[in-house]
């Protein structure tokens, strides 16, 4: 009888010990989860992986850091750069930093500097951007109109761009064709030797300074539809605005290039980490400057302001400027903003 009682007591002790051990293990795991959650919610926001992703705490799943790294390494940015907007200065920074940052920069050189891609070339370009995995992460850049990836059933890249006050850009291009720039000073330009001022050109009503020739920033954002390239087309202006908001990751302005680079560094550090400091402390702040340029007189300026092409181009510029200021305000001024997930249901066992 005594032996049976001792056996029962021994079994009870064993069961209690096992139960307490299992309880202690579960308690330890729970504490580890809480510690991990706390660590994620207080991450260093200056770290390149400052997007906070809370895992579901399954042992078999990869860490959030590895997930973010894999996603960022598939990043593709397309910069369909508008001529004479400071794009050479910006791209020069990307080329200088790409080796250190371990990403690729590719120039899309279209035959004859044509801004319109044929249908088959649009498709080929989309296939390259989407399927050329060996080159990712990558920045593609070139002077071509917006290509709608969704139209071809392909995943969209991150589009970026810069635009400039329309008359400033137009005048800069006019003198660039005559005098070139300090980027390639020995290259003979199309209108070399022609010293006619922009004011004289406007007074004589020549085609190269006609307001219709200023129609460029709107169609670059509008895309490849026929109406996009009809000067002063209201539908084109509306489409350009829609694309800027819905299909562009970021559009900055030439006059605030440093802030444009700052927002990109804050939001896409995988490609642009260190770009702001490099821009401010190197000779890249204005890489391509037109050698000789005259400011138009008030008569010329008033003529353009009365033209519907200038009015629509300027409306688009003001729209882009307002949108950029909104994004900049909520990005550069909230560098330490974060978020995390909580109250996740059902609870994980």
From TrEMBL:
Keywords: Disulfide bond, Glycoprotein, Golgi apparatus, Membrane, Signal-anchor, Transferase, Transmembrane, Transmembrane helix. InterPro entries: Heparan_SO4_2-O-STrfase (IPR007734), P-loop_NTPase (IPR027417), Sulfotransferase (IPR005331). One of its GO terms (biological process) is heparan sulfate proteoglycan biosynthetic process. GO terms for molecular function: heparan sulfate 2-sulfotransferase activity. Its main location: Golgi. The keyword Membrane applies. One of its GO terms (cellular component) is Golgi membrane. It comes from the Eukaryota. It is found in: Golgi apparatus membrane. It is a single-pass type II membrane protein. It holds the Pfam family Sulfotransfer_2. The chain crosses the membrane at residues 9-27. Gene3D superfamilies: P-loop containing nucleotide triphosphate hydrolases. The keyword Disulfide bond applies. PANTHER family: HEPARAN SULFATE 2-O-SULFOTRANSFERASE, HEPARAN SULFATE 2-O-SULFOTRANSFERASE 1. Belongs to the sulfotransferase 3 family. Homotrimer. This is Heparin sulfate O-sulfotransferase.
